[in-house]
Write a structure and sequence with these properties.
By secondary structure, the protein is an alpha+beta fold. The protein is built from three helices and four strands.
């Protein structure tokens, strides 16, 4: 299993809107993205993280270049961001 973790700095006042973006694109992600296995929204006081599960590093990296991510997800979240997102890909040992 491979995880794509995206950490977002989003003000408390904007978190409901960010959760709406997450909900809007969760099913299209799971249904259409190659190798997609899971998608979870993790909320902490200091930030919000979206954890995506994939079957390979290649599919995780390809998602970051996909139209769903660049044109839909990024466009929906961009006005809510307080800083550039932090993106990491992890492989389960």
């Amino acid at each position: 299993m491979v995880y794509l973790q995206i950490t977002l700095k989003i003000a408390n006042a904007d978190r409901a809107a960010a959760a709406c973006v997450y909900q809007r694109y969760k099913e299209p992600f799971l249904g259409t993205v190659a190798g997609a296995k899971s998608k979870e929204l993790l909320v902490r006081e200091e930030d919000v993280q979206v954890l995506h599960g994939f079957d390979s590093k290649e599919n995780a990296a390809a998602y970051l270049q996909s139209e769903l991510f660049t044109a839909d997800v990024v466009a929906g979240l961009e006005p809510l961001l307080g800083a550039a997102p932090e993106v990491r890909i992890y492989e389960v040992a």
